[in-house]
Amino acid sequence: MPDLLLELLSEEIPARMQARAAEDLRRLVTEGLVERGLTYAHATAFVTPRRLALAVAGLAERSAAVREERKGPRVDAPEKAIEGFLRATGLAREDLEIRDDKKSQVWFAVTERPGRAAAEIVAETVEAVVRGFPWPKSMRWGEGGLR
């Protein structure tokens, strides 16, 4: 299992903001990884006056494949309801399954999404965290307009 070391260099971080910034970095990155389906063993944040760092150990190499089942209208429902369900799922009628429910037969949409590579998920998560980092004092990141 790979590890991740993230280090953000910055202007001097006031002492009163350091602990909170390190905790925010840890929380935002780990929540972002988990939301995107990537698991990890543990994460530790570090801070100095000019940098924030995060070490994430035991990172999975890929997110797990996801199988999603969505219950649709009854088989004898009006055609408009079935067409709306097909549009919402993005599937064709041949891709749906018929299953017995408590009262009648129901259409089910089953979709499978393959797992994503850890590098792709980490890149997406880090960008989102840097762009939305909760900072009491606004700072510029690089020469661009990112604050």
Short description:
The protein has helices at 15-35, 79-89, 118-131; strands at 4-9, 42-48, 51-57, 66-74, 97-100, 105-113. It is of the alpha+beta class.
Radius of gyration: 22 Å
The amount of helix comes to 25-40%
Q: Can you name the CATH architecture of the largest domain?
A: 2-Layer Sandwich
Give the end-to-end Cα distance, rounded to a whole number of Å.
33 Å
User: What is the CATH topology descriptor of the largest domain?
Assistant: Alpha-Beta Plaits
* Overall shape: elongated
Q: How much β-strand is present in the residues?
A: 25-35%
Q: What's the mean pLDDT score?
A: 88
Please give the CATH class of the largest domain.
Alpha Beta
Given helix and strand content, the structural type is: alpha+beta
The run of helices and strands is EHEEEHEEH
Count of individual beta strands? 6
Which spans of ≥5 residues are poorly predicted at pLDDT below 50? none
What is the helix tally? Answer: 3
The order of strands across the largest sheet is 1-3-2
How many domains? The number is 2
* Major sheet description: 3 strands, antiparallel
Task: Explain what you see.
This protein has 147 residues and is α+β, with helices and mostly antiparallel strands. The protein has two domains: 4-62 and 116-131, Alpha-Beta Plaits; 66-113, no CATH class. The protein is built from three helices and six strands; from the N terminus they run E-H-E-E-E-H-E-E-H. It has a three-stranded antiparallel beta sheet, covered by helices on one side. A hairpin with a 4-residue loop joins strand 5 and strand 6 (105-113). The longest helix is centred in the first third of the chain and has 21 residues, at 15-35. The protein is elongated, with a radius of gyration of 22 Å.
